[in-house]
């Protein structure tokens, strides 16, 4: 199995980072430094160039550093066939992206060759937080593996915003609102079908990951819970039928924007029965399942970004995770304040992060 490799990272003006130029090792890379120096921002910059989203939930303006006009990230990625260059430039008013110096024509063209999987402290919310975070997990995988998914996601969001704007008017026009039922049905049903097919793949991948993180997870079930059918005609009819309730709530209630990935343990929501430690292990297993599904669907092992993993997992699970990473052959970037954690990744390249700059360590 081929592993995706980042061969060069250049960052300028992204949060507190300045003049960052890294030539990472093909295997493990450890970013060492005190809290607040910019370690997480390096991972965020890498993932932003690969996914065009901040895993910390930041807006574009928050990514641009104080006093900087723009945040720029450039990645060179070595894939199974060719090396590609990803560039993202973010200003407070917009964003420019290029792939090999050109604007990509399709979402899957951009995302498929830059697959990164991120595990970070906020991932506890994958289990305990809002459905939006679990939907985002599914969408991260699908924009990289299903041609047309990114375009359908964008078109659905555009139609949904327009329909909701009409619903919020002082005197809503029912005919104007109903004009958006067809685009919602067309794009929304495609999203539902793709997500349901993905969850069918995600469950066995998660079961494998439960074993890998030593989580006794008998009885854990992942299930996609749609608010509207995956059939386009049935979806459109359901939205039309729900118009009176939408008018009453002044919002579109049905569709993939309101769906959830249900996680239950012996029939009970995992967020209710899982302990803090079990929740951490479950969140990690979901990220590993993301990696396994991407590997299965693309035949390429994604890059793994581990942010302060030692604060989320005990030492035994951290050691187990690092051993697993080595067997997977994934390139990994891990942040930590503790040099002893870096020792769990023998042979790793080490970088010191201080005041927004990054330098290799001997």
Element layout with pairings:
Elements: E1 2-3, E2 5-12, E3 20-22, E4 28-32, H1 39-51, H2 60-63, E5 71-78, E6 83-90, E7 95-99, H3 107-111, E8 116-119, H4 125-128, H5 131-145, H6 149-167, H7 174-178, H8 181-212, E9 220-225, H9 232-241, H10 243-249, E10 260-265, E11 268-269, H11 270-273, H12 276-298, E12 300-301, E13 303-306, H13 309-312, H14 315-328, E14 332-336, H15 339-342, E15 349-354, E16 357-360
Helix pairs in contact: 5-8, 5-12, 6-8, 8-9, 8-12
- What is the SS-derived class? alpha/beta
Shape assignment: globular
Specify the number of helices. 15
**Mean pLDDT over the full residue set:** 93
| Superfamily (CATH H level) name of the largest domain | P-loop containing nucleotide triphosphate hydrolases
CATH class of the largest domain: Alpha Beta
Strand order of the largest sheet: 8-13-14-4-15-16
* CATH level-two architecture of the largest domain: 3-Layer(aba) Sandwich
CATH topology of the largest domain: Rossmann fold
Alpha-carbon distance between the two ends: 31 Å
Rg over CA atoms = 21 Å
The helicity comes to 40-55%
Query: What oligomeric assembly is this protein in?
Result: single chain
Quick tags:
alpha/beta; Rossmann fold; Glutathione S-transferase Yfyf (Class Pi), Chain A, domain 2; 6-stranded mixed beta sheet; 5-stranded antiparallel beta sheet; 15 helices; 16 strands; globular
How would you characterize this protein structure?
The longest helix has 32 residues, at 181-212. This protein has a 6-stranded mixed β-sheet with strand order 8-13-14-4-15-16, sandwiched between helices. A 5-stranded antiparallel β-sheet has the order 3-2-5-6-7. By secondary structure, it is of the alpha/beta class. The protein is built from 15 helices and 16 strands. Helix content is 45%, strand content 22%. The protein folds into 2 domains: 1-115 and 302-362, Rossmann fold (3-Layer(aba) Sandwich), CATH 3.40.50; 128-298, Glutathione S-transferase Yfyf (Class Pi), Chain A, domain 2 (Up-down Bundle), CATH 1.20.1050.90. It has helices at 39-51, 60-63, 107-111, 125-128, 131-145, 149-167, 174-178, 181-212, 232-241, 243-249, 270-273, 276-298, 309-312, 315-328, 339-342, and strands at 2-3, 5-12, 20-22, 28-32, 71-78, 83-90, 95-99, 116-119, 220-225, 260-265, 268-269, 300-301, 303-306, 332-336, 349-354, 357-360. Helix 5 runs parallel beside helix 12 and helix 8 (181-212) packs across helix 9 (232-241). The protein is globular.
